[in-house]
Amino acid sequence: MKPTPATLSPHKPTVLTTVLSLGVSVAFLVGAPVTPAAPTWQNTTIESFSTRFTSSDWSTVRAAKDSLESLQAQAIPVLLALLGRDEYVKLRDTADLIYPGATEFWGHGGVVDYDIDWLSVRAGWALEDLTFQNFGFREGAINHDALLKSAMAGKVDVLLSSVVALESDADVKRERRSRAISAATAWGTRSSDAWNRLAAVVDALRSDDPVRQVTALNWLRHGTTPCQGLSKETFTQTILPEVRRLAGSNDSGVTEQADYLVRDFESKEWYWLSLKETEKGRR
Description:
The structure is a single chain. The chain has eleven helices and two strands. With 283 residues, the chain is an all-alpha fold. A two-stranded antiparallel ribbon has the order 1-2. Helix 1 packs antiparallel against helix 2. It is globular, with a radius of gyration of 18 Å. The two termini are 30 Å apart.
């Protein structure tokens, strides 16, 4: 079975069947690191990724996000620290990217429902995609159905604000960032050195939050960043039972993605697993 485009759901970070899906989803340092200190040479590499992630160039930011996400647990302290940088760094050269900071809608493009011109939100975007948590950094402004309807009606090359309702109240946006930062920081304080991404996937699937469930399912189907311990065996034994259960969810977005993954398993399609091989991680 060929990979199918992500369908429209208010929970999903990807969009439009006619739109390129990006697969492309902090205020304080926590008291104790989530992972042990990395070797000096590795710290230098992580710092380099962090610096690039705060760039104003979209292609640089996107590549740095993948690199940080590929480091898995080692990236968490870096992202938590970036939450403290509530600075506005306007992205440039975003092409057809659809996100709250965009001004125009071209009728196609990848979707990121995070106001990633703000560094704290940018860090939250990466942190939520890495951990499959839902701290509240999503803007909730990018309505996938509205985008598709506009594109199908030929309403393209127009102001994005004429297609979706973008929040313009700076105080509302600031309060949202503050709440999300507090939630992420509290989670970082509670998290132990034993955090690992495989357990995080299972935890998200078992949660009662459709946003977390769809984030995990989308990553399983389309994600390219690695997950230590994920294999055919661990998927079949630990993840598949949860995916089968979610195929009966009351949330249509969850049901659809879970059903696609079950079909792939039953068809012995493992293309999605090969996308996540460790050597695929961007270094």
